[in-house]
Amino acid sequence: AKTSGRGRFSFFSNEMNLLAQERLALEAALREALRKEQLHLHYQPQIDLKDGHLYGVEALARWTHPEIGNIPPIRFIPLAEECGLIGELSDWALREACRQLADWRKRGLAVPAVSVNLSATNFHNLELPQLIADTLSTHALAASDLTVEITESLLMDTNPSTMKTLGDIHAQGVRLAMDDFGTGYSSLGYLRRLPVSELKLDKSFVRDLARDEATRALTNAVIRIGDSLRLTVVAEGVEDSTQQELLKAQGYHVAQGYLFSPPLPAAELERWLREHAL
Ligand code: C2E
Ligand code: CA
Ligand code: CA
Ligand code: CA
């Protein structure tokens, strides 16, 4: 029994070593990717449901590793959060998205705004509001050209800097969007405590919309909450025109999803915008 116990233990410990080694290797690779500019942003258009105009674009990070290939953000964002690289990654994403927006405008494309996703730990950094202000001014952009997407994990965060940082960013006139709205247990509490201008209905609701009456009742409640608080409400993950029509009929303001376009590299988004005369 003793030997088999030890054997089992060493088996697990080897397994854990392997995982730890893999993680360390990935961490080193991410560090290098940031240094060597192997990360990219893709942009997904957001469409105003009333008039079909472009409302804005969301910037989403992409990592193509020279050997492994594409590593999805659901893998490398949590890794960046755990190994202390998320500050650097978000600084890069903010700068790159603002540079790209300014570049589009210079070349005559009327992109109204760009949204950037930030992680809860980014708000521990008291210098974030200044970084945002500097980045906007470097590219001669207005605060209202930028939207920062945040998630409910911010509320779980007890770091005292978080609320101050959020308040400072809001005070500059940068819009805050609540991402994945409806998935957390405290979505409504969040609305009372944070200065958000935009709600993003989570795509799980959009997915079930056509076949489930209870889901339609909930999405109807969400747009009513948004309207009464004068928030822009964006529906995510819109994949077909049935979903689009249902959301439009309920009064949703903006839609985003594969029905219109997947997230695209900047040059391809540019082509898409010109083709659709947006
Ligand atoms: P998210 O912010 O909720 O982004 C929406 C996700 O839905 C994106 O996945 C997008 O590609 C995908 N999507 C768009 N349209 C559709 C659709 O019609 N149907 C479906 N099923 N999916 C659609 P992606 O790009 O893989 O990103 C996953 C998550 O990774 C994001 O979720 C966000 O939480 C995180 N993420 C991505 N880029 C960044 C970043 O630069 N910083 C931070 N902190 N997080 C990021
Ligand atoms: Ca988002
Ligand atoms: Ca989302
Ligand atoms: Ca998400």
From TrEMBL:
Residues 23-277 form the EAL domain. It comes from the Bacteria. This is Diguanylate cyclase/phosphodiesterase with PAS/PAC sensor(S). It comes from Azoarcus indigens. The lineage of its organism: Bacteria, Pseudomonadati, Pseudomonadota, Betaproteobacteria, Rhodocyclales. The chain holds residues 570 to 847 of 847 of the full protein.
